[in-house]
Amino acid sequence: MSRAAERPPERTVFTVRELTQKIRDLLEERFLLVWVEGEISQLKNHDSGHIFFSLKDEGALLKVVLFREEARRVGFPLKEGLRVLCFGRISVYAPRGEYRLIAQRIEPRGLGALQAAFEALKEELRRRGYFDPERKRPLPAFPRRVAVVTSLSGAALHDFLRVARSRWAAHLLIYPVRVQGEGAAQEIVEALEGLNLLPDLDLIVITRGGGSLEDLWTFNERAVAEAVYRSRVPVVSAVGHEVDYTICDFVADHRAPTPTAAAALVFPDRTALLEKLAGLRRRLEENLSRRLALAEREIHHLRRRLRDPLALLQEREALVRRLGREIHRKVAERLLREEGRFSALVRHLEALSPLAVLSRGYSVVRKGPQGPVVCKASEVKPGDLLEILLAEGKIAARVEKTSSPA
């Protein structure tokens, strides 16, 4: 054997970074976008809003990163042990030399997982007040412009339009969207946001036919629930059959069990309204007829009671004259009584007057013209001047002598 044959092959040496980069390029090129099914484990919610977890099955473990923007769009709470389907791209995290899935979308997998995710989101939104009756708005009594968000190919639109056209003449705006599958939820969100920009829109109806829990899952997405909650225009949800309930049903202002029932709920029955108006007109006419008849009878009764104005005036005039005479008589009698009472008082005063005593022969003696009345002999002395008042006139006198009773 030659020495050249024994020489080892030329070696290619990579740095760790170079080899990791080549592995990364190969993986990202080969697994650009993939769906991966597994059970959530090692779940961690970072303060930044990113979510880190692993997908596992019986024989392997795959690390997954869900960045903040994608995490906000997940329509159900993630928890340990939940089986999910993840969509994203494979990437290599060089500092740790590990490959991982950068998730862009996550769906619960299997009926059990779907139901658990449904109940978890329902409870969360209930606690946040999304289902509160106080925020539910009434339906317009006579809608003029109604938007319908649904698929053009489904029977739901046909059923809705058939009943709507038979009941009420309104302007209908059809907004076509996918109602299941990849991107359906985002189309419904965009439809609601766009319709809310239109002026004079009275109502939005979201509808589709029945299906399995998986088929109706679009209407259990958080993004759809948030868009319905934010809508300034009242929303009616009519998704599935009568036994089907979605998160959209709970958040909407009103829920109809089927598309047909939604049309009956939204639009008044024109025929029934016309019949009701006719009945109200008959009742109004009958009521007016009864009131007119009653008024005529009352007028007739008042007319019989109404007397001749001239005779009534003459009667009132006679009454005034009679009352005048009665007043005059009463006043005269009162004056006569008062005159008699006055005369008696005058006589009594005259009897008590000092002048009346003087007229009976008595006199009043004063000590001088302005002096006090003399009642005792001891009050004067000889030589004092006295003034004697008589019933008629005065006498001036001088005291010659006084004497007191023994």
Automatic annotation (TrEMBL):
InterPro entries, from UniProt? Exonuc_VII_L, Exonuc_VII_lsu_C, OB-fold_nuc-bd_dom
Quick one: a GO cellular component term?
A: cytoplasm
Domain of life of the native organism: Bacteria
Q: Which reaction does it catalyse?
A: Exonucleolytic cleavage in either 5'- to 3'- or 3'- to 5'-direction to yield nucleoside 5'-phosphates
Main subcellular location: cytoplasm
- Its Enzyme Commission number(s) read 3.1.11.6
What residue stretches are annotated with the Exonuclease VII large subunit C-terminal domain? 130-334
* One Gene Ontology MF term: nucleic acid binding
Which cellular compartments is it found in? Cytoplasm
Please list the GO biological process terms of this entry.
DNA catabolic process
Query: Where does the record place the OB-fold nucleic acid binding domain?
Result: 14-107
- Subunit composition? Heterooligomer composed of large and small subunits.
Family, according to the entry, reads as follows:
Belongs to the XseA family.
Q: Mind telling me which PANTHER family this protein's record contains?
A: EXODEOXYRIBONUCLEASE 7 LARGE SUBUNIT
According to its UniProt entry, the function of this protein is described as: Bidirectionally degrades single-stranded DNA into large acid-insoluble oligonucleotides, which are then degraded further into small acid-soluble oligonucleotides.
The protein here is known as: Exodeoxyribonuclease 7 large subunit
The record lists the organism as Thermosulfurimonas marina
Name of encoding gene: xseA
